[in-house]
Amino acid sequence: MRESHMLHEQLPSQTATLLVVDDQPLNIQVLVHILGTDYEVLTASSGAQALEICAQRLPDLILLDVMMDHMDGHEVCRRLKAELRTKDVPVIFVTAQNEPGQEVEGLRLGAVDFISQPINAVVVRARVRTHLQLRQAQRQLWDLAFHDPLTGLPNRRLLNDRISQAMIASQRSLQYGAVMFLDLDNFKPLNDQHGHDVGDLLLVEATGRLKGCVREMDTVARFGGDEFVVVLHELASAPADSRKRATAVAEKIRTALGEPYHLTYWSPDGVTPVQVEHRCTTSIGVALFLGRTTTTADLITWADSAMYAAKDAGRNTIRFYE
User: Fold this and answer.
1) How much is the pLDDT for 14?
2) Do residue 92 and residue 126 come from a single domain?
């Protein structure tokens, strides 16, 4: 009972997804029987099928047989670690071979552990649980390092990477992308009158509105304070069309952020809820780019400069960097 209680406390809040890969149906059945109660278990009977599943749905951990026909486990692991999307998924090799050289080769390829056959159910559960906990801890550290704690948006460090990825995609597709720099024109009076906690409520609400204005492939990042950066991928191949599409997104953002904010917070007595209605406009600067012809720092600087030109023009406006 003590072990099951600890397991319940330590597992992630959402059920983890495992992928079991083996060309022997009986071996798959054994692992599904051992792990299927606590996890969602996907199965693949070949290396090619495993790679296809991972391309469609990313598992939290993979249990991978070493000896398989056509494509062995080592080759599957090599291909997983070569792909950006799958390289961080932990792989545990399951093998009847106990030679040190096999383990060394597997670890060299990026596996995190080995499970020997015949299977010991207690050992399997313990090792899977341990590596899922390590995976969860790594994700939490990554979130802290690369995301804004208030809004959950990418921070400056991750923003630079996202812009670099957008530039690479632009170079490949020969389509323009855009970096937008924006801030909230009437944000400071809210902080001054009601305090920073209420300002934080508005920033969280503004984040949701911003994310609703862009595609999933695009990026919304918090630059600092009430400043945000939006990265638009692959708009069009012609500069005029790209400008038109970026303008449409900017107008959508300007309209969404201009709607009134209805915020509720507790008065100092902790008993009375206080309702606040606040309006913010936004000034937006846009810099288009094609390929990797400049730096991420330059793009942000150009978009920032265009944003200040928008403010000088009377706020609640959009300006492109020329």
Assistant:
1) 64
2) yes
Choose among 221, 80, 241, 205: nearest CA to 155: 221
Is residue 165 domain-shared with residue 313, that is, in the same domain?
yes
Rounded Cα distance between 311 and 19, Å, is 53
Judgement on whether residues 138 and 161 belong to the same structural domain of the protein: no
Structure tokens belonging to residue 12: 């992630």
CB-CB contact of 164 with 48 (8 Å): no
Contacts for 60 with CB less than 8 Å, ≥ 6 apart: 16, 17, 18, 89, 90, 132, 135
- pLDDT tens digit sequence for 198-245: 999 999 999 999 999 999 999 999 999 999 999 999 999 999 999 999
In tens, the pLDDT along 24-39 reads 999 999 999 999 999 9
- Domain with 69, as residue range(s), is 2-143
Q: Which residues pair with 59 in a beta bridge?
A: none
Indicate whether 224 and 262 sit together in one domain: yes
Tokens of 211: 């994310």
Same domain, 197 and 79: no
Q: Determine phi and psi for 194, rounding to 5 degrees.
A: -115, -10
| DSSP string computed for 89-121 | S-EEEEES---HHHHHHHHHHT--EEEESSP-H
Cα 115 to Cα 86, 122, 134, 276, 318, distances in angstroms: 21, 11, 17, 59, 59
Residues 23 and 92 in one domain: yes
Phi, psi of 284 (to 5 degrees): -125, 130
Question: Domain total for the chain?
Answer: 2
Same structural domain, 133 and 166: no
Give the containing element (helix H, strand E) for 139.
Answer: helix 121-146
Whole-angstrom distance, CA of residue 277 vs CA of residue 186: 13
